[in-house]
Amino acid sequence: xxxxxxxxxxxxxxxxxxxxxxxxxxxxxxxxxxxxxxxxxxxxxxxxxxxxxxxxxxxxxxxxxxxxxxxxxxxxxxxxxxxxxxx
Length: 87
Description:
Elements: H1 7-17, H2 24-33, H3 38-49, H4 53-61, H5 67-83
Helix pairs in contact: 1-3, 2-3, 3-4
């Protein structure tokens, strides 16, 4: 069963905890500390910065806060692609 993600809640928490303009690291560390996934963090980050999801994804993926997760998933993805046989 899927659970709903209410980005408004985290956008408000972020605004209260970190008002004004701050760097990407600070925003992503806060969101990760709240237990958000990389996808959820990307959604909130996009809304906070007024970015498209594509631009927000690029910023989040390239940031050190999520760097380990991205590298882990990337190698897993590469292994899957390498092991897939097509008839």
